[in-house]
Amino acid sequence: MKDTSETDGECCPARVAVIGGGRWACVVAEKLCSLVPDSIGVSVHSRHNSRAVADWMAAHSLQRRVLVCSEWPRSAADANAVIVANAARDHAAAVDWALAAEIPVLVEKPLALSAAIAQQLIDRARSRSLRLGAAHVFLFAAYLERFAALIARERDIRSAHVCWEDPRVETRYGDEKRFDPGLPVFADWLPHVSSIVGALLPGSSLRCEDLRLLRGGAHVELKLAAGSVPCSVQLIRNGGRRRRVIEIAAAGRALRLDFSTEPGRISCGVTTEDPDPDWNARQSPLALMLRAFLRWAAGGRFDFRLDSEIGLRACRLIDETLARYDAALLTWLSGRLTDPGDTDEDLRYALGEILQYRGLLSAGAIERGIERVRARFARAPDTGWVKALISARAADSEEQS
User: Fold this and answer.
1) Average pLDDT over residues 290-304
2) What pTM did the predictor assign?
3) Which residue ranges form the domains of the chain, and what is each CATH number?
4) C-alpha torsion sign, points 79, 85, 309, 305
């Protein structure tokens, strides 16, 4: 089989591999199947969750279309393009493998867990003239392009506000959506915020100036700056509803994009409009992003929205935020651990995040870990030990005993 094929007048890799075992990896594979002909091989590779992936494919009648493997592709002979959609802590290893095999790779957010690692991956790709793209799906949304065009007409942008909230239970693409409990909410969502604000206020890199932590880290409020424009951000997990709202204050009027339900509505002063009247007729942002990557991976033109520098900027912002977050978490956690009462939901969230930094644990393991943490703090209630706990972000409860 040739390494590329023609589809809809565009070149496409002959074999496309998705690395990941969660819901999103399955959604990406399903979307790929709708974009490319049956002659294009699509595979999903999960070292720890291949059985669940196979069940998902069977439930969606894709068991004969998608090859499910419990190991990563062995070489470029098994994959001509790779999409990394596994846990964020495993992104770097998967990208490193793809680059070593000289396979074009697209990475879901965040590009890496730190800017230093992201920079190493980018440098490695550039030194070998390899294709490394960062996936920021909202950059492919027509409603965001429409909102950006409206903002570009304004002469004086005074401030920006972003609210990003998920409910406790949510169904997306027909399946229950779950977040990575070991990944802080800002590390999970700032790549979205950073890429969107960058599109709305081009040329203005974001920096973190202040942070407020609530509910053990399930709710974080940030004061950012996009150049000279102040930008407030609310990030809320386990909230009451799904919210995706961006507000821009310009001289004389306010502009608002609410895409909680896509494509949402744009409000300019007292008027509102549909930002994408062709939403139901055009391909989804995910489909457009995947098509752009497949075209580039097969040797076609580069789409600037896949630029790995966008992911690197998000990683830098995450690094800045992490220092403030850990300081706030230290203060919050030290205060809550002195309370001899029952472990409430907020404390369970905070400790669960720390305990699962390097991998998911069973509910029983988490509870045992929380009890060990509380018992140890009762014996030695000093902030130095709590600081070490936060910094280590231990893999499991045994490491805290």
Assistant:
1) 97
2) 0.91
3) 4-137+286-305 (3.40.50.720), 138-281 (3.30.360.10), 338-400 (no CATH)
4) positive
